[in-house]
Design goal:
Blueprint: E1 5-9, E2 14-19, E3 25-29, E4 32-37, E5 40-43, E6 52-53, E7 56-57, E8 60-66, E9 74-76, E10 78-83, E11 88-94, E12 99-102, E13 108-110, E14 113-117, E15 119-120, E16 134-144, E17 148-151, E18 166-170, E19 178-190, E20 195-201, E21 215-219, E22 229-231, E23 234-240, E24 248-252, E25 255-257
Antiparallel strand pairs: 1-2, 3-4, 4-5, 6-7, 8-23, 9-22, 9-25, 10-14, 10-24, 11-12, 11-23, 12-15, 13-14, 16-17, 16-21, 17-20, 18-19, 18-21, 19-20
Length: about 260
């Protein structure tokens, strides 16, 4: 369990902030706030370095929820920050087990606010079958070395597929379960020379391809493609490591109604 120091604001008659530092004693005197830690006396709000307490720097975090029209299933596509600096969207999660994120460096400043697309991070096993970006390829003719998948020339390796996409497979006869094979590293198609294959790079999550005629499908790379997150509501967490004063006035999201 995490412990926090709470602050009370008489103006709002509530507790607006949680602080990560934990003093041993607190006291106010002559319009200054003092705390004791490790036998040392500290006076607060007297330096320009924000989020630094007892020589330790912390992150600022904000958690809230998008819950307009709670009975409708929606796709949360973007985040727009009204403020003077971009924050990182460390997570946005929904009631449908969808999660997403935005790195602070991905935000673009537009007309005085910061805008970015939500990147879905649910495209790792075993959630691929739940994603809208799932696309089928076809059954393979041959698998060489577990990394080169050869297809019949009649199988189209469509132009939507690209290097960096995630490749999955299902085995006959039932094709009832999907497995993560790896990341597509090259797509090779030359009909005149009888070439029609995909090469993948495997990692620690990859499952070896044991059948020569598995059915393959792929999921778009979640960083390259904005897939958004699906749900009735979205709980989001923002984080900033800034040590100077910054303002955050509002957080907005572009939302689309889902039509299954």
């Amino acid at each position: 369990m995490s412990n926090y120091t709470l602050t009370y604001d008489e103006g709002v008659q509530g507790f607006p902030s949680f602080y990560s530092y934990q003093p041993e004693w607190m006291i106010g005197m002559n319009n200054y706030f003092y705390t004791f830690k490790g036998g040392n006396l500290y006076r607060h709000n007297v330096n320009e370095s924000r989020n630094t307490f007892y020589n330790t720097t912390y992150n600022s975090t904000v958690q809230s929820v998008f819950n307009d029209q709670p009975l409708e299933n929606k796709l949360f596509k973007t985040i727009n920050l009204e403020g003077d600096k971009a924050w990182a969207l460390t997570s946005i999660s929904t009631d449908m087990d969808n999660t997403g994120y935005i790195d602070a460096s991905w935000f673009e400043e537009k007309e005085g606010s910061f805008f970015a697309y939500i990147r879905n991070n649910s495209s790792t096993p075993p959630n691929a079958s739940k994603l809208r970006s799932l696309n089928g390829i076809g059954r393979s003719e041959e698998v060489n070395g577990g990394t080169q998948i050869k297809f019949n020339l009649n199988v189209t390796l469509d132009t939507i597929m690209s290097v960096g996409d995630l490749l999955y497979f299902s085995n006959p006869p039932g094709f009832s379960q999907s497995f993560y094979a790896g990341t597509i590293s090259s797509i090779n198609k030359d009909v005149l020379n009888g070439i029609n294959n995909i090469v993948i790079t495997t990692d620690s999550s990859s499952i070896p391809i044991t059948d020569q005629t598995s059915f393959f499908f792929y999921v778009k790379n979640s960083v390259a493609e904005s897939q958004g997150v699906l749900g009735h509501y979205g709980v989001f967490n923002l984080q900033s490591g800034a040590t100077q004063k910054i303002n955050l006035f509002a957080v907005e999201s572009e939302v689309m109604k889902s039509y299954p």
